[in-house]
Design goal:
Layout lengths: L10 E5 L5 H12 L6 H8 L4 E8 L10 E9 L4 E8 L8 H16 L3 E7 L3 H9 L3 E10 L4 E9 L8
Parallel strand pairs: 4-5
Antiparallel strand pairs: 1-2, 2-3, 3-4, 5-7, 6-7
Length: 169
């Protein structure tokens, strides 16, 4: 499995909290524009059944107080497979390994849950994200036309098959 670029001790993962939602919303709008989730949608997702959300911060030994959230990710488990709901990393922190750390956490959580696979959808005009997913072993299943609204951008559906766990699930 791929590992994050650079020093893995650079990043800190923790569960997303309600107090993170303002920052996550700001990142969501910066990354996804008009199609971004609203605060209410994010809050509902955070407390939703079968949902698991994490944030990533950049460790800074010199800073005092909480480290700012620079990325976030979410997963939904339906009892069979997990679905990556979102992965977002601040524009000025992309291509530094934070997205890989988030995806590693989602795949690890999927394995813990006993999922048979991980599904996701990614815009076809996001080659960096597609490359990251393919590096992890995700396979393209198909193309969804005009999936991302209001941009009407096409999206690939992708799947990472997972081996059954030792517990027999």
């Amino acid at each position: 499995m791929p590992t994050a670029d650079g020093d893995p001790r650079r990043w800190r993962l923790r569960p997303m909290r309600a107090s993170d939602l303002d920052r996550v919303l700001a990142l969501e709008v910066a990354l996804f524009g008009a199609g971004a989730w609203s605060y209410a949608m994010l809050a509902e997702e955070l407390g939703g059944s079968g949902r698991w959300y994490v944030v990533v911060t950049e460790r800074d030994e010199a800073s005092v107080g909480p480290e700012p959230v620079i990325g976030y990710a979410g997963l939904w488990f339906d009892g069979e497979v997990t679905q990556v709901m979102t992965i977002g990393v601040a524009l000025d922190r992309q291509h530094q390994g934070a997205g890989t750390v988030l995806l590693e956490a989602l795949v690890a959580r999927s394995r813990e849950l006993g999922a048979h696979g991980v599904l996701l959808e990614v815009a076809v005009d996001n080659p960096a994200a597609i490359a990251m997913y393919e590096k992890f072993g995700f396979e393209r299943l198909g193309l969804r036309k005009r999936y991302y609204q209001p941009e009407d951008v096409d999206a690939y559906t992708m799947r990472l098959p997972l081996e059954p766990s030792a517990s027999g699930r």
